[in-house]
Amino acid sequence: MSHWFLDLVVHRPDLPLLPGSSARYGWDLWDSWPATLAVELGLFAAGIAVYTSSTVARDRTGTWAWWGLVAFLLVLYAMSALGPPPPGVGAVAGVTESMWLLVLWGWWIDLHRVPRSDAGRVRVQAP
User: H or E stretch including 26?
Assistant: First the structure.
């Protein structure tokens, strides 16, 4: 159900409230490039703020790997927002299959960061 509310913001009016209903809903955010950028980059910034304020790096890897991931994701976003469409289905499939590498990157970062509440109990090196 939560996905429907997220889709409501971005979809054109094509979402039924109930199965079989003829009424369709959608706020059509994707038709406004500035609004799309504001919402997506705002959510990205909020996620960065939450993670950064709730964890602390155990070592330099925890700092550099985290900010490296943030920079990498920003570059990917800029490429997808400003670049041409993919050349074909194979390119989309290849990129989609490689997304699991981001999960491993996040896992590796988490090995080098601790919750801020545990920072006093865990040895934390200055970054």
Answer: none
- DSSP three-state, residue 56: strand
Which pLDDT tens digit goes with each residue over 16-53?
988 888 899 998 888 898 998 998 899 999 999 999 99
Cα separations in angstroms, 81 against 55, 75, 126:
30, 10, 36
N- to C-terminal Cα separation, the chain? 42
- Please name the residues in contact with 66: beta carbons below 8 A apart, sequence gap of 6 or more: 51, 52, 57, 109, 113
Strands 113-115 and 55-57, sheet pairing: antiparallel
SS3 28: coil
Report the C-alpha gap between 57 and 85 in whole angstroms. Answer: 37
Q: Where are the domains of the chain?
A: 57-115
How many residues in total does the chain contain?
Answer: 127
Reported pTM: 0.78
